Amino acid sequence: MTAVKIYGITICIHEKNSENIYEIDDDCPIIHLIKTNLEDGSDIYLATGKDDDKKKLSHDEKCEEQNEQDICFEPNYLAEFKTICSLNVTVRPIKYDGNRYFRALSDQITGSQEGHVVLRAIVIDFISDHREIFESSIDHEHFSSWEDFIYRMRQNGTFADGIVVVASAMLLCRQIIIHQRAQRPVLFKSLCFISNNNQIHLVYDSKKLHYNSLWLIDGNKLYVEESECVSA
Q1: What Gene3D superfamilies does this protein's entry cite (predicted)?
Q2: pTM to 2 decimals?
Q3: Residue 2's beta-bridge partner residues?
Q4: What's the CA gap between 72 and 195, in Å, rounded?
Q5: Which of 102, 144, 133, 101 is nearest to 119 (CA)?
Q6: β-bridge partners, 15
Q7: In which residue ranges of the chain is CATH 3.90.70.80 found?
Q8: Class of domain 77-231
Q9: pLDDT digits 0-9 by tens, 147-187
Q10: b/e map of 167-201 (b: 16 or more CB within 10 Å)?
């Protein structure tokens, strides 16, 4: 079993047919997922049906180091970006694969890209559980049906779309702000009450279709007034 903790939620990933029982010492919410291999070699993560509220890990949490691929920017990219935001910011490069949105989201929440797998699982589960909210917004040019959308979005390497960003903000109860060069930041708001001091900031390169994580140069979390943004 692999266990990670993201935004106060403990995620336990079980191998298929696992019968092991785990406990945790604290009272934080816990989600159980089961790793299932598909015929094409990819993996999906599904709910196990376990309803244990308190579990204890029988081993230390271990995370495999990700090989980061450096992203090269045009020389004036950050200069233009700083002018737009009137802030001293730095872009934290995210691995260039189909998980780039969830990797960037994980970096903003935990300071590491490691949580992208479980973030994808819980966000897509949230979308699946709220079909009445999201179904009308799927892009039928890319997805043949609601079931096709959910199936493909669960799979490792599938690019996230706007529905996923909206669902992420709703699930995490945090503002997600997407920055692009030469444009005002786009604000995705949660419906629940949240603190503006806990924003998630991603930078999107529309040419490369790539997300990176945005921080202040001093390592502190970035804050942008809603008035500086365009609402999604």
Answers
A1: 3.90.70.80
A2: 0.65
A3: 13
A4: 34
A5: 102
A6: 35
A7: 77-231
A8: alpha beta
A9: 999 999 999 999 999 999 999 999 999 999 999 887 889 99
A10: bbbbbbebbbbbbebeeebbbbbbeeeeeeeebbb
